[in-house]
Amino acid sequence: MQSLNISTSAMRGIQQALDNTSSNLANLDTIGYKRRHASFSELLSDSMNEQPRVDNQNRNTPFGLRIGSGARLGLTKLDLGQGNVKITDVPTDVMIEGDGYFAVSRQTDNNNEDFFLTRDGNFKITKHVGLNQFALATASGDYVLDKYGVPITLTDPNQPIRIEADGRVFNGDDDNPVAEIGIWKVNNPDQLQQVGKDLYDADIDDPIKLTDKYADAVVEGIATVRQGALEGSNVIMTEEMSQLVNIQRAYQLNSRAIGISDQMMGIANSIRSR
Amino acid sequence: MIRGLYTSASGMLALQNKHESLANNLANINTPGFKQDLALMRSFPEQLISRVSDNTGPDIPGIPNMGGQAAMIGRLSTGIYMSEALPVFTQGDIEETHNPYDVALMDNIQPDEDGNEQRLFYSVARIDDLTQPADGENIRFTRNGNWSVNSEGYLVTAEGYYVLDNANMAIQVNKNPDTAAAAVNENAGKNLKIDDKGKLWIEYLENTQGQPTETKLEELNVTLGLNVIADPSGKLVREGSDRYRLDGQYDVDNDVVKIETALQEDIDALTNNVYDVPKVRGRYGLQQGWQERSNVDPAQTMTSMMSVLRAYEANQRVITTIDGTLEKAANEIGRVNG
Predict the structure, then answer these.
(1) Cβ contacts of residue B129 below 8 Å, gap of 6+?
(2) I need a labelling partner for B302 at 20 to 30 A (CA). Which of A62, A79, A201, A227 fits?
(3) Distance CA A229, CA A235 (A)
(4) Which residue of A has its CA nearest to B314?
């Protein structure tokens, strides 16, 4: 009975949509999290052509009978809308207002570096292993890169840090900035690959290529930097909850359909059971 | 009598098909742009029944009483089958998604001269050479405006079909997606604006030294292909994956009209000031950041499903009853010493 498969495929898709919604809800308070929106898609249609030959008169539709075979989760699209502002007043918390991403580098075992993009500006000061200097790093220890692709190092970590709207970082009383935070514009953000921990794969192997591949969002005028604030997630609680209701009802309806298919099979089975 | 057995069995089979079609409607209750199928039943061709030996029979209106031949009793239908799954192209309600690549399509086009329903569709296609327009036979139609952008910067559907503009070309919204040298107006993302008539625009910030930042809107000279199809249920074949294709006897050149052409008369009337009221307005519209939901009515589908179940059960009862009668005929008739 095909109807069992139809409803099962839909239930599988709905379950995945539920997974997506729970992931959004779980990250309601994650800094820099971008929600995903699940969208369904039909499965291919069965075409039944074993219809009587005379049945090509007085029809409303082209010849043959086509019944779809269910639904699946088509795509989960990243919603890159801005999250809400959280004022923290922590000097190493940086938020991007507008479009753009921080670039971070991670030291791997054999002295190689991996590069990622992130919106999470929850930074801390840590000792850079290679450079033996204090550097700005993310919560998971990846070094934040400046607009030339080099880690941002500080002259004196005990002195206050000031970060201007254009990304210049000042350390202590020095009037010359120690670095400028790189904010990178991604031309095709839909192709960004999420690698977890709020990071997206930067898809480069050398920091020099960063400037070839991504433009400077501050120069383009599409982003500014705000110190002492963080970007919350862009998950909207009410929307996720109404989505949850939607999903649950769809799940129930499909499970009812399975129940009815089951009853029909039972009926067919009991044709000869007297 | 045994004929009745097959009649009921055909009823069960047809109802099973109908149940499948209803289950598919329910399965796609959250599929954007899905149009529900209506299961149409049709009875098998009828037979004329005549008496076997007695040639004096009653007069039946409409059937000639031919003397000397076996008398006609009447017509007998021998069962039912599901002949069509008729897609119902009514408008689904629309829902906000905040995604720049989601476009809901709303239409309210008048029927054509023959009284056929006319509906609007997006066109999508697989294209090998992106510098050329899509071939007519490769074009598929969809109401699902849930798109994304592929690695080359083209607007594509969830299955990777290119979304076509009104010249049947693929639409590149992000030019140079992989280099920093791309000009400000060459990449879309959140800056892509699609207006209510399907025109594409790019909004960008112009940042000249010493000047306040300006928001600029640049026209991309691309309009989404919006296709009017008259009598869509008669011409379109459901292919699945949200797509429809034209049935073999129809072709894109003759049976599909672009919306600009379809409404030309109204637009002319408008520009010539024949009418004061803009007739074109309200005929169709697009809404970016929204999606059209499926037009399946869960309550109605569930009710039909329950009635299908009961009808199925009734057919089964008929079979069991016939079986019981047959049992009597086989085992009890002519038995000596009961």
Answers:
(1) none
(2) A62
(3) 18
(4) A267
Distance from CA of A11 to the nearest CA of B (A): 8
Residue B118 maps to a domain: yes
Q: How far is B30 from chain A (nearest CA, A)?
A: 6
Cβ contact B24–A70 (<8 Å): yes
**Domain assignment of residue B247, yes or no:** yes
Whether the Cβ atoms of residue B87 and residue B40 lie closer than 8 Å to each other: no
Burial of A221 (0-12, 13-18, 19+ CB in 10 A): middle
Instruction: Write the CATH number for B314.
Output: 1.10.287
- Is the CB of residue B321 less than 8 Å away from at least one CB of chain A? no
Domain boundaries, position B127: 94-292
Compute the distance between CA of residue A81 and CA of residue B173 in angstroms, rounded to an integer. Answer: 19
CB contact under 8 A, B205 and A221: yes
Residues B132 and B34 in one domain: no
For the stretch A182-240, pLDDT in tens is 888 887 777 788 888 888 888 787 777 777 778 888 887 778 888 889 999 989 999 99
Q: Do A43 and B240 touch (CB under 8 A)?
A: yes
Residues B125 and B220 in one domain: yes
Residues B118 and B228 grouped into a single domain: yes
Task: Tell me if A263 and B149 make a contact (CB, 8 A cut-off).
Answer: no
Kindly determine whether residue B83 and residue A75, on different chains, have CB atoms separated by under 8 Å: no
Q: How many C-beta atoms lie closer than 10 Å to residue A75's C-beta?
A: 17
Structural domain total, chain B: 2
B323 with B286, same domain?
Answer: no
Measuring CA to CA, how many Å separate A48 from each of A64, A66, B298? 6, 6, 25
- Could you tell me if B83 lies within 8 Å of chain A, comparing CB atoms? yes
Nearest residue on chain B to A50, alpha-carbon basis: B83
Q: Which amino acid is at A222?
A: I
Same domain, B308 and B273: no
Mutation target vs A (from B15, B28, B142; most A CBs, 10 A cutoff): B28
Q: Could you give phi then psi for residue B300, rounded to 5 degrees? A: -65, -40
* Residues of chain B positioned with their CB less than 8 A from the CB of A211: 180
- Residue A215 to residue B182, Cβ atoms within 8 A: yes
Hey, how many other C-beta atoms are within 10 angstroms of the C-beta on B231?
20
ipTM of the complex: 0.83
Of all residues in chain B, what percent are helix, strand and coil, respectively (each to 5)?
Answer: 25, 30, 45
Mutate to test the interface with B, among A12, A187, A191, A213 (most CBs of B within 10 A): A187
Q: Model confidence over B12-52: pLDDT tens digits?
A: 999 999 999 999 999 999 999 999 999 988 888 788 887 77
A68 → closest Cβ in B238, B291, B301:
B238
> Closest Cα of chain B to A253: distance in Å?
7
pTM listed for this prediction: 0.85
Residue at token pair 């939607």: A246
For residue B57, tell me if it sits in a domain. Answer: no
Q: pLDDT tens digits for B131-182?
A: 888 888 889 999 998 898 888 888 999 888 999 998 889 988 887 666 666 6
Distance CA A47, CA A68 (A): 8
Instruction: List CB contacts of B153: < 8 A, sequence separation 6 or more.
Output: A187, A188, B172, B173, B174, B175, B176, B177, B187, B188
